[in-house]
User: Which sequence fits this backbone?
């Protein structure tokens, strides 16, 4: 694990890193020493490890929750090279969204292309980050919406170190099997008027989650319109389960 | 408004009252002076103003939130006389629940029997309570599950003094029209495995609510199994909107 820089602002230290071929960022509270809970944050489709939503949540989790937070670029995103097959699918996806057409089959194709690599990447990053003195082997949570949920579900299902997860903005039936293997507490966010994920599919995916503690939070609005107060709830959810 | 007694424990003052034919209870923080937000709490079917769930929530809202809280016995419940027609319906309802049969049509009949009177009772109690020095004319919220939601929806829809509401455990189609007239922020609680309210009807009732800010919280479990952490969320919801 190589760190490239270290900057600090508003009480949060930001350290971009590379682990093998995986570019990532670690955020920790300024002056952090010793073990603390760690949140892994998976970005959405077309986004990257420092997309505005990721950055805002990561800084708040570190500053207000005292968490360590790590984000990575998933395959074909951010600083990582894109495979020609992915480029074709992504262009097709954008064209369908513009035309108001269904994108569910492409979600599955995009997911299938990168899911195995992403799970392996997250497991390697988790191991490496927990070796750092100011992170350590504490409780681990995973946060991911949309593509971050699609890639997060198989990761959370496979990874016993993850003890709580916030997922959502997803309903792809290809995730049903992974969802059923998730047994840790889940907060699942759904946008009632999501133009990319049919409501019934989102509800079915929540239903498929295997956990006995799983809370669905639904709000009016489109895919990108998660209300601000859900971030407050997410922070409390992680504090309750990992704190 | 006649008060019958005044007891105090664990920082909360409890004052049973009668207003006309309506028996109620007012809870306020010990030493309360001046205007504060007020929560009106509607009990469930077969329950009353001091049912254990009402009492626990009321005491916590007063002690932790600094709210005034009022509960009443709705018609045919608690200390109020029961009409023969209501007795017949209630016996039929209990028999159907024991037999695992559908109760939706009886919900509607029970609701229709008392809704007008209940809305008038709540409006009178709200006016009277807000004349008290240690309550005053502050922001008002309404909390009610199950029958408390069925009777609460028309009340909240009709009463501009109510500024935020927590409702749920309901899905009766007879409420659709009242739900559509609710425009204040709503938190709507749904039990995913509710044996009394079909899931699809609960989701449809949430969908019908007219408010732009309305959050659905769903959790696994039966009608009576609301998880404890939802009470924390309710307290924060009211604090955010009425505080």
Assistant:
């Amino acid at each position: 694990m190589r760190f490239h820089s270290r900057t600090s602002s508003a009480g949060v230290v930001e350290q971009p890193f590379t682990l093998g071929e995986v570019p990532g960022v670690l955020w920790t509270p300024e002056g952090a020493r010793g073990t603390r809970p760690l949140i892994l944050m998976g970005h959405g489709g077309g986004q990257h490890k420092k997309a505005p939503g990721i950055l805002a949540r990561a800084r708040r989790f570190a500053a207000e929750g005292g968490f360590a937070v790590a984000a990575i670029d998933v395959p074909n995103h951010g600083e990582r090279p894109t495979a020609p097959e992915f480029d074709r699918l992504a262009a097709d996806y954008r064209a369908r969204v513009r035309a108001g057409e269904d994108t569910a089959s492409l979600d599955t194709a995009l997911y299938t292309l990168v899911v195995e690599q992403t799970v392996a990447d997250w497991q390697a990053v988790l191991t490496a980050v927990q070796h750092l003195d100011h992170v350590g082997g504490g409780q681990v949570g995973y946060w991911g919406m949309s593509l971050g949920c699609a890639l997060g579900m198989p990761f959370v299902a496979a990874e016993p170190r993850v003890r709580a997860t916030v997922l959502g903005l997803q309903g792809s039936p290809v995730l049903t099997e992974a969802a059923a293997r998730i047994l840790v507490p889940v907060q699942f966010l759904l946008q009632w008027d999501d133009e990319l994920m049919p409501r019934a599919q989102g509800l079915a995916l929540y239903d498929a989650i295997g956990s006995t503690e799983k809370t669905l939070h639904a709000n009016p609005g489109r895919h990108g319109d998660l209300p601000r107060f859900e971030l407050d709830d997410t922070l409390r959810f992680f504090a309750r389960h990992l704190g």
